[in-house]
Target: Methionine adenosyltransferase
Amino acid sequence: MQYKKIITSESVGAGHPDKICDQISDAILDECLSQDQNSRVACEVLACNRLIVIAGEITTHAYVDVVKTAWEIIKPLGYDENDFTIISNVNKQSVDIAQSVDKTNKNLIGAGDQGIVFGYACDETPQYMPLTSVLAHELLKEIERQRRSKEFIKIQADMKSQVSIDYSNSTPLIETMLVSIQHDEDYDVEYFNKKVSAIMEQIAKKYNLNTNFKKIINSSGRFVIGGPIGDTGLTGRKIIVDTYGGVGHHGGGAFSGKDPTKVDRSASYFARWIAKNVVAAKLAKQCEIQLAFAIGQPQPVAMYVNTFNTNLIDETKIFEAIKKSFNFDIKTFINDLNLWTTKYLPVATYGHFGRDDLDLSWEKLNKVEDLIKNSK
Model:
């Protein structure tokens, strides 16, 4: 294997066992917040063989039938009530955590835990996202669309993709596209391979990229047993798929099933909002924001701005412009991003960032002018 500068990202479909768990967690969160915006939710799901366990801590005035909500996610993926037993073991939030989050000063919210979060953006795609990540998601979105419309038959919802791009030269070249899709026992291999190959080339052409790349299709040879029956799933195990793929850093905290007081989620959205606006303001071609939090504290305890030497003005000026343009109080940025009223289920699949198919507050370029003005 010769040296090349190759970057790789992956995605997983809605029927992947980990993503089933993410979707159930976020569907329960959405139902809680729709009835009670003061809900405190940390919902975790385990899917193993034919058992699904809903666990975590939820404090809310809402009434949510968590088992019914889970079935509303599972049935469109091709399962019925004979396939799984679902049990719930949900408790209330610890009073110790609650008192650190809900301050006596009602204008403040304390971080629900310590943690490090990152937000990233680049000018490589219209979505301000890494190209590998965009392609990996788009592959599966198109395959899933064709599965649901029955344009692509005898396939199931458990699927994965992986895209590698060679950046050794000035023009990015797709090195490899890989797809694995659960299929019916009696599927036609030739038909299957032709359909997947055509979708791969369709996505490459959409971004004006080469089509003479290596195609790897169901490299295991057989993928009939899938979903939680084939592999255990757990909420929060696809954190790189959820964010920036093989580019950028991650603090380790998952998103799904967590209400906005959990800075793992809300501050990651906030950091993405900052980074995207910095790049859109042409202060840098890449920008990564690192924020650190302490439990109970209403603001980050540290911030680091990294432009990977792509900054077009001094990084110190970018740092100061960010501080002047954004309010770092947790309660304020939760409200600025309307996170109490956001529907989270749509971002539980195909990434939380760069979603030009959704109207997401943290993707808006509404701070560009402020950043330009404050950077001078």
Notes: The longest strand covers residues 155-166. DSSP finds eleven helices and eleven strands in the chain. Residues 115-125+262-374 form a domain with the GMP Synthetase; Chain A, domain 3 fold (CATH 3.30.300.10).
